[in-house]
Design a protein that fits this description.
Number of strands: 18
Number of domains: 2
Distance between the termini: 31 Å
Shape: elongated
Helix content: 25-40%
Structural class: alpha+beta
Strand content: 25-35%
CATH topology of the largest domain: Umud Fragment, subunit A
Order of helices and strands: HHHEEEEEEEEEEEEEEHEEEE
Amino acid sequence: MTTYYFSLLLVIATVLTGIIWAIDHWVWKPKRKETVAATEKQSGLKLNQEQAQQLAPQSALADFSQAAFPVLLGILILRSFLYEPFRIPSGSMLPTLLVGDFILVEKFRYGLRDPIKRHELIRTGRPERGDIAVFKYPVDPDVDYIKRVIGLPGDRVVYRDKTFFVQPSCFQQCGNVKPIELQQELVNSGDFFRQNTPLQKYSESTGDVSYEILVDPSRNIVSQAFQWDVPEGHYFFVGDNRDNSLDSRYWGMVNEDLLVGRAVFVWLSLEFERSPDSVLPRWMPSKVRFDRLGRIE
């Protein structure tokens, strides 16, 4: 509910300061000018700005609203329709996104929505296969999740021996469509660990999009094939850290109404790991990972 209440408070603050600014600009300010003009005419002297302010002062509330309204309006427009910052809290998107990465999400990529009820105002686009997207967790829409899109509306997604196969746009006719295997090529092993097990890094590609994923060789490979048909208006999301991600394999598809935006940029990356004998508190970062800054591929 934190995100919802922040959006609600931001909208209310913007509207209230805007109303007060408008009243001051169109009603109170002309009256102040009339008072100053009448005094100047009566005295025959031209008042400077300080004298005019003392004679007909602007209220503290109007002064605050005049300064705050354009700032709040800018934040509202930026956060609701353009870009919103998010922090990566878990390792489900390793090796693409690390814990401590701060990212920008392009809000207008998947449609412009009102900031409170999230009703779509203007349809601008939908996810493409391979996109990294932020969405509202279907089980608890108050929580934001980030995963990679591999299944589009109408697709059939098959998972077998730790490999995904996608039969694109074949809803109810999948028998006539040749599946696309998400090609994997082993890159290395040992850059990342789960407990004491080195994770295998693969380069995976789907169409023109290539990225890296992690596979845990200690997790049992299930030979049974699992299959999902993606309904219209829904998407199939998975984490790049394939054996350590709760995603559409477990809680189902993501409705397009839950889409937030596409992750496009890492603007800050903080390292929190340190030696056990470190005197620094755990919440304090140990370093800034400058090499992480840039566009998300």
